[in-house]
């Protein structure tokens, strides 16, 4: 069985993000970009499935500007067998910007905000999902793994939309993934064919366990696994490996198919927190909680 893993490149989670003064997005001069943490977890899970002999091939896929290839190299170093980059032509990028320029509050006054101004990828989730659906079909994937959300735009939509477009079952926020085997795979080499996925999800009241017939879409939550450390030799080897380029047209898609579905109005910093006060003792704390905060 082939496993497709969707990988997004985002601003590193440790970098403080600042909103642009014109409120049209976040500062573009950003020092460090890395693989979205939830995509890293999705990829680790796919590599483990391969190591267990359940997956025959792990294909990492990224849709975005040329520098997204750096993150695909990290994916190869982590254990992906192949990497596919879907580049965005100037026409696609212009379409996204044009649609967004009419959107900001006061029209183009919002600085001609990019459609996904907090994101390094100009495509919105529906556009990404359409690309992933085309790739899943082309590759004959039995399972598509994604992060539950990208930490830049916090959309939490791509996996759900992908499952809808493909008409496949989905399990979001997976904290455990087991594949139930159903005999020998045909195109899967030595790996056995999986018939269904058993997914555990952390929900408010406890754990929910689902069974999904394959092919299916699963999105990874934080506790699914701890991704492996990428070693320098693995990274050096990955630098020499090819990354396939799959332009939209080669997937049967046009720029209009990935055009933005919504416009960003503005991005704002959260309100500043009021300064704290020091209380003289427990009695004063209790009195103020009762009389001023009215929480007791
Ligand atoms: P989102 O719906 O934007 O929060 O993203 C959820 C997941 O969709 C991410 O963790 C990735 O697995 C996938 N994804 C989003 N954008 C891209 C992209 N440009 N290229 C590849 N995968 C993506």
UniProtKB/TrEMBL annotation:
This is Electron transfer flavoprotein subunit beta. The keyword Transport applies. It is found in: Mitochondrion matrix. GO terms for biological process: amino acid catabolic process; fatty acid beta-oxidation using acyl-CoA dehydrogenase. Keywords: Electron transport, Mitochondrion, Transport. Heterodimer of an alpha and a beta subunit. Pfam families: ETF. It comes from Chlamydomonas schloesseri.
